[in-house]
């Protein structure tokens, strides 16, 4: 199957809906008391399944291959392996990013896996597994002049394509850029607008942006060669006080890290790159950005 032929469909809303960058304004945490620490796990054991929220539209983390109704992706295959090792079935609920955390709070799902970034705000309301992916933010710009951007401070007055409620848009606004928002647009719309000058840049996850550029080489765009910033940890979102569930999931993730499964899956879905390990490059932390 040709990559370019199906990526346009699979990357729907990549920059708008990338889960690692979505905020959770207005969503309440799961709360709970000490008795719930084991009751959640007992409930899952009795049911024999984990109910997991994911988007199904975030290539290559969670998506449907062309012509298939079976979910796959880095995140999905990690969750499938967790289910296998815990002897539990996995039932996926495909939910839009804006509703995922609320689904955990309400009990509709047991957890979320969708390239979700661990932030201090989210940790006040939810629990997180140990990270299964380490990444950072990059910036797509025009190849000819890097869109006039040499440093992050040069975003002042620039136009950044993005989603209204993402961490990436928060970063752009933090440095004075105007965020141009879209509906559920495909990647080619975002990239074409930078290419033709309607916008100047797109901030997003390094691995996702790398694959987007590879899939659409007709645009004269590049990842900014000098700007690597906002290091991120991606993890599974769990109810706040589901201690036993977190212990079980963390144990499996540690096994998968030690036996090489995480590395193998990452290389399969990220073009041979190992996103399960922290980047060796020096990544700039952004001071004064409240996430």
Question: What can you tell me about this protein's structure?
Answer:
With 291 residues, the chain is an alpha/beta fold. Helices cover 35% and strands 19% of the residues. The strands form 4 sheets. Strands 7, 8, 9, 10, 11 and 12 form a 6-stranded mixed beta sheet that branches. A 3-stranded parallel beta sheet has the order 4-1-5, with helices on both faces. Residues 1-20 and 24-37 have low confidence and may be disordered.
Furnish the topology, listing elements before pairings.
Elements: H1 3-10, H2 14-17, H3 36-47, E1 49-54, E2 57-58, E3 62-63, H4 74-85, E4 89-94, H5 97-106, E5 111-112, H6 120-123, E6 127-128, E7 133-142, E8 159-162, H7 167-174, E9 178-181, H8 187-196, E10 201-205, H9 206-215, E11 221-223, E12 229-234, E13 237-238, H10 243-258, H11 261-269
Parallel strand pairs: 1-4, 1-5, 8-9, 8-10
Antiparallel strand pairs: 2-3, 6-13, 7-10, 7-11, 7-12
**CATH H level, superfamily name of the largest domain:** Periplasmic binding protein-like II
Indicate the structural class: alpha/beta
Instruction: Please indicate the percent range of residues in DSSP E strands (runs of 2 or more).
Output: 15-25%
Count of distinct structural domains? 2
Largest pleated sheet = 6 strands, mixed
Number of helices: 11
Q: Which series of helices and strands comes N to C?
A: HHHEEEHEHEHEEEHEHEHEEEHH
The CATH class of the largest domain: Alpha Beta
Cα-atom radius of gyration: 19 Å
**Second-tier CATH architecture of the largest domain:** 3-Layer(aba) Sandwich
CATH topology of the largest domain: D-Maltodextrin-Binding Protein, domain 2
Number of strands: 13
Assign an overall shape: globular
Poorly predicted spans: 1-20, 24-37
Helical content stands at 25-40%
Mean pLDDT metric: 87
End-to-end separation in angstroms reads 39 Å
């Amino acid at each position: 199957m040709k990559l370019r032929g199906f990526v346009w469909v699979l990357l729907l809303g990549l920059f708008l809906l990338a889960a690692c960058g979505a905020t959770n304004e207005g969503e309440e945490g799961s709360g709970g008391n000490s008795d719930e620490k084991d009751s959640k796990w007992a409930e899952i054991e009795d049911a024999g399944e984990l109910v997991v929220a994911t988007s199904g539209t975030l290539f290559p983390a969670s998506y449907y291959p062309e012509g298939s109704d079976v979910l796959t992706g880095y995140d999905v295959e990690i969750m499938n392996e967790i289910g296998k090792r815990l002897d539990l079935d996995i039932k996926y609920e495909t939910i839009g990013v804006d509703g995922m955390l609320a689904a955990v709070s309400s009990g509709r799902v047991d957890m979320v896996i969708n390239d979700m970034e661990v932030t201090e705000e989210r940790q006040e309301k939810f629990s997180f597994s140990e990270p299964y992916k380490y990444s950072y933010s990059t910036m797509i710009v025009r190849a000819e002049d890097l869109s006039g951007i040499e440093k992050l401070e040069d975003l002042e007055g620039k136009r950044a394509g993005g989603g209204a409620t993402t961490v990436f848009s928060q970063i752009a606004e933090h440095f004075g850029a105007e965020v141009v928002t879209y509906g559920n647009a495909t990647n080619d719309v975002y990239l074409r607008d930078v290419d033709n000058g309607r916008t100047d840049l797109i901030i997003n996850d390094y691995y996702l942006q790398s694959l987007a550029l590879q899939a659409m080489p007709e645009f004269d765009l590049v990842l900014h060669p000098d700007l690597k910033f906002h290091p991120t940890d991606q993890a599974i979102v769990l109810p706040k006080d589901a201690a036993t569930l977190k212990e079980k999931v963390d144990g499996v993730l540690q096994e998968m890290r030690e036996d090489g499964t995480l590395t193998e899956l990452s290389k399969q879905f990220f073009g041979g790159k190992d996103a399960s390990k922290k980047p060796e490059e020096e990544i700039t932390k952004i001071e004064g950005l409240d996430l």
